[in-house]
Amino acid sequence: QDSPEKWTQISRKARSILLKTDSYVFVDEVSQHLLALIERVGASEVTVLMNGPTGSGKEVLARLTHDFSPRRSGPFVPVNCAALPESLAESLLFGHAKGAFTGAAKSTIGFFERAEGGTLFLDEIGELSLQIQAKLLRGIQEKEITPVGNSEARPVNVRVVSATNRDLGKSIKFGTFREDLYFRISTFRINVPGLNERRDDILPLANFFLVKYENGTREHRFTPDATAKLLGYEWPGNVRELENVIQRAIVLSDDDFIDADNLFFDEVIDFGEDSSQLAGESYSNAGRDILRGTTKSYPLGNQSTQPDRKNLQSAMDANEFRVIAETLRTCRTRKE
């Protein structure tokens, strides 16, 4: 006979699996307005440019744009333009013919053709070179591409959604981004706010990541102090930083509760003079504090949590050391 505990465990596992396949959290009023806009824009065929800070969830919104579109049954192909090697960017985007360059043993399709009938998401589009931008403009405008080493153009049926954390207007003034491409990719422009501008999403997202990353043996909960600490922080790294903080907290937690002492933030670093010397001092001081059982205090509630931008590298190094040292101090050894 199945026990209630067994069914509780099955239910918890099912909930975890569901959350791991659905990463959309829109609780704040700003987020709900954004979601309504994404739903309307997604249903059309216009090009979309999302502009927002790093880690604010632009790819999540791009996927939703695809899911709301008539192309939802087609592929969604995300491309990080900043990670494309400059010498291979053209081949990776548009494909190449056999023998087009050394090592091209066979013809290969690029990201454009992989996204045929679906959506091509170009993240950090501002990082592309002017030469690639010219070919990209033709692909979007004429709906045809020419693979490297091929003289004949191929038609493509792709919707392009782009994203950037740059001010492309300034890039145009500096001559690093084509104005004609900008107007072609930004038929509809969406400004994605940082997490600090949608604070009602902080706790729902934190609980989402708590369930997503727990191992299934525990059901973690936040203490009031931990909740206050999460709400009192400015989140310069946005949703990505929050995700990192929760993953670390789960590793450091000894029981079912996540306390304020388990939350370590990604401190903003400012590279100043004598940073290497200060980094060494911070390592030493942080180590002594943790091994004595004391940790750095953090302001709660509405107290200011703006990071000190001095001695940046030392702040990051000290934060990393605290996490490692705290884990070593609290974990049991085999002999224990």
UniProtKB/TrEMBL annotation:
One GO molecular-function annotation for this sequence? Answer: ATP binding
Biological process terms from the Gene Ontology for this record are: regulation of DNA-templated transcription
Where do the Sigma-54 factor interaction domain residues begin and end? 24-251
Which Pfam families does this UniProt record tie to the protein? Answer: AAA_lid_14 (PF25601), Sigma54_activat (PF00158)
SMART domains found in the cross-reference section = AAA
Name the chain's protein.
Sigma-54 factor interaction domain-containing protein
- Which CDD domains does this one have? AAA
Q: Which UniProt keywords apply?
A: ATP-binding, DNA-binding, Nucleotide-binding, Transcription, Transcription regulation
Instruction: Look up keyword Transcription regulation and say if it applies.
Output: yes
